[in-house]
């Protein structure tokens, strides 16, 4: 439902020269081949004082979804529903495209990281680092819901590319005093995302009933091609200072402060270059939205060992968040100027944890914590959505959604048995979520926005196990159950009591069977066969859409000797065709014109790794 994944990269190692490299190649059923290269070098610069670590990777992932251009693109039949807007897409199953671009959803990813570890004294460590990543895709991993083949059909030849470039500079410092450690983390990040989407069919369906359109091309009585380009550069500066106790006593503590400044400039424009004489403009929709936000927080945590086996920890985080937004939307569907809007949020998030350790192999705990997710601004909906908005009891759709808050109550147990050959962990939790941020679909105009949709109660159970069996075999797995539903009706968002929370499957689970065995003194064999299951969930595009559950199976086997390892693997062993999502359009969503995000078909690969 939410959370943060913390990635901690390997730090440079002082006094040791080391290198490693991994090369891989793989083939996807019905698609192109993929290649990858990863390399690392660790260089000691000053003995006992300074080291440099460089890491880089280049990944070229082949695609499997085609793009077909049909010049004489068939029109939907308005007699089925009474309008072009709601009519189902014409049947394309027997259509032969005039142009076919094979396996267009390629991905190229270049990543580089450099880090220096400087230890001028035994107490002081300074680690500056720089991270760079550039991702380019040839097309999204999605195909047309109708006719449902691994193809995206278009009336015009428009590439749908995506780019993502990120740069992050970080300086970490730690000084060890006699009784506590002082840690400082300073970072500055710049990121720019750009994407292009074909909106020709959406433009036709949104205007055909009003403009008397008889085709897609201008020569056929249409509006011609349309494409939407979206760009969002962001910058972020963060600073955190933390003091952590290190003395061996019944008391332990952490205190710190945090500052974050974030700026974003969202721009989107939908262009119809040939439709000016008909629509009076070539701009179907445009948005220019500037957002500046800052957050200041202080936090503290105090732990006390009540008895040798019982420990209590209490903490709190006091925050103050300020957001300032301005911008405008234009074009045929634009809503005009967005008045500068400021929002200020402040509060305290407390936490409490009680842990009981009857032995070194068993832990019981109870925790209570409060969390907050920040709100944000969003473009205004166009005037063609006024009827949809009025039906929800609103005078206008919100141009900002508020923070949401959650209280989490959890009981858990972590246990190890038989000389730590068997691990069993379990947890049961309950969450009370207020003002949940959810997508709201406006069915008559095809736009969506985000609003705070009442309260949700979440009840869940997690269980995991890991067993090391005789003769090098192992068995591990986990299962999770979540019951997440709205507590009451909310006319503002159209949610009803009992509606499931969006994008939250009821059941998840995985299981893996492993084998790890040394042969003689030189060779080692490693093997793994695993399966993961994700239950069904509800998402929102034009309307509410139920995703089916799915199970994916993967396997890997490798043999190594000394410094090298060769591995073969297969992902999606049973070649399941899974619908992962129903992505939103960049401009407007129209009925019966959705695309489905697909899982990757069966992929078989081989990797060679060497370390020194």
Structure description:
The chain has three helices and 34 strands. It is mainly beta. It starts with 17 loop residues before the first strand and ends with a strand.
Mean pLDDT: 92
Give the overall shape, derived from the CA principal axes. globular
Question: What amount of the residues lies in strands?
Answer: over 45%
Largest sheet report: 22 strands, antiparallel, barrel
Structural classification: mainly beta
CATH architecture: Beta Barrel
CATH class: Mainly Beta
Number of domains: 1
Q: How many H/I helical runs?
A: 3
Uncertain regions spanning at least 5 consecutive residues? none
Find the CATH superfamily. TonB-dependent receptor, beta-barrel domain
Q: State Rg.
A: 28 Å
Count the E strands. Answer: 34
Task: Report the CATH topology name.
Answer: Maltoporin, Chain A
From the N-terminal CA to the C-terminal CA, the straight-line distance is 41 Å
Helix content: under 10%
What is the topology?
Elements: E1 18-28, E2 33-46, E3 50-61, E4 66-69, E5 99-101, E6 107-118, E7 124-137, E8 142-144, E9 151-154, E10 162-176, E11 180-198, H1 200-211, E12 227-245, E13 251-271, H2 276-279, E14 283-305, E15 310-330, E16 336-359, E17 362-373, E18 376-377, H3 386-391, E19 400-401, E20 404-417, E21 422-434, E22 437-441, E23 448-452, E24 455-468, E25 473-486, E26 507-519, E27 523-534, E28 537-540, E29 544-547, E30 550-561, E31 564-571, E32 579-581, E33 595-598, E34 603-611
Parallel strand pairs: 4-9
Antiparallel strand pairs: 1-2, 1-34, 2-3, 3-6, 4-5, 6-7, 7-10, 8-33, 10-11, 11-12, 12-13, 13-14, 14-15, 15-16, 16-17, 17-20, 18-19, 20-21, 21-24, 22-23, 24-25, 25-26, 26-27, 27-30, 28-29, 30-31, 31-34, 32-33
């Amino acid at each position: 439902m939410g959370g943060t994944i913390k990635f901690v990269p390997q730090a440079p190692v002082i006094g040791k020269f080391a290198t490693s490299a991994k090369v891989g190649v793989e083939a996807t059923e019905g698609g192109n081949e993929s290649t990858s290269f990863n390399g690392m070098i660790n260089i000691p610069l000053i003995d006992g004082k300074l080291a440099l670590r460089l890491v880089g990777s280049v990944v070229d992932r082949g695609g499997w979804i085609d793009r077909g251009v049909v010049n004489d693109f068939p029109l939907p039949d308005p007699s089925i529903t009474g309008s072009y807007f709601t009519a189902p897409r014409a049947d394309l199953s027997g259509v032969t495209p005039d142009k076919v671009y094979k396996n267009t959803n390629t991905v190229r990813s270049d990543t580089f990281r450099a880090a220096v570890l400087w230890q001028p004294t035994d107490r002081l460590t300074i680690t500056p680092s720089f991270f760079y990543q550039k991702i380019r895709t040839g097309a999204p991993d999605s195909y047309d819901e109708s006719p449902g083949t691994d193809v995206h059909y278009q009336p015009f030849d428009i590439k749908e590319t995506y780019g993502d470039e990120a740069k992050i500079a970080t300086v970490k410092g730690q000084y060890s005093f006699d009784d506590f450690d002082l840690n400082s983390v300073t970072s500055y990040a710049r990121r720019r995302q750009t994407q292009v989407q074909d909106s020709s069919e959406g433009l036709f369906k949104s205007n055909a009933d009003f403009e008397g359109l008889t085709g897609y091309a201008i020569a056929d009585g249409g509006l011609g091609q349309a494409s939407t380009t979206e760009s969002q550069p962001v910058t972020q500066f963060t600073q955190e200072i933390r003091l952590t106790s290190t003395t061996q006593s019944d008391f332990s503590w952490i205190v710190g402060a945090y500052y974050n400044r974030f700026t974003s400039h969202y721009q989107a424009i939908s262009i119809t270059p040939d439709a000016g004489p008909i629509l009076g403009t070539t701009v179907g929709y445009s948005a220019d939205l500037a957002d500046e936000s800052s957050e200041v927080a202080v936090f503290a945590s105090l732990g006390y060992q009540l008895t040798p086996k019982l420990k209590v920890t209490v903490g709190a985080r006091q925050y103050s968040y300020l957001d300032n937004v301005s911008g405008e939307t234009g074009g045929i569907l634009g809503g005009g100027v967005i008045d500068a809007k400021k929002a200020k949020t402040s509060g305290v998030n407390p936490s409490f944890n009680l842990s009981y350790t009857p032995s070194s192999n068993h832990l019981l705990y109870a925790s209570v914590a409060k969390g907050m997710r920040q709100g944000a601004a969003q473009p205004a909906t166009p005037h063609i959505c006024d009827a949809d908005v009025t039906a929800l009891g609103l005078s206008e759709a919100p141009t900002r959604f508020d923070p949401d808050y959650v209280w989490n109550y959890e009981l858990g147990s972590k246990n190890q048995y038989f000389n730590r050959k068997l691990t069993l962990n379990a947890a049961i939790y309950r969450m009370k979520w207020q003002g949940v941020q959810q997508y709201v679909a406006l069915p008559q105009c095809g736009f969506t926005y985000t609003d705070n949709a009442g309260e949700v109660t979440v009840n869940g159970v997690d269980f995991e196990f890991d067993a090391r069996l005789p003769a090098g075999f192992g068995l591990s797995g986990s299962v999770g159950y979540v019951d997440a539903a709205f507590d009451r009706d909310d006319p503002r968002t159209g949610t009803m009591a009992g509606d499931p929370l969006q994008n939250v499957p009821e059941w998840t689970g995985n299981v893996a069977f492993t084998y790890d065995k040394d042969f003689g003194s030189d060779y080692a064999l490693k093997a793994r066969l695993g399966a993961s299951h994700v239950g069904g969930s509800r998402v929102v595009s034009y309307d509410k859409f139920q995703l089916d559950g799915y199970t994916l199976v993967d396997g890997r086997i490798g043999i190594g000797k000394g410094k090298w390892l060769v591995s073969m693997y297969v992902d999606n062993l049973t070649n399941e065709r899974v619908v992962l999502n129903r992505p939103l359009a960049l401009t407007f969503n129209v009925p019966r014109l959705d695309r489905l995000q697909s899982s990757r078909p069966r992929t078989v690969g081989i990797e060679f790794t060497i370390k020194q």
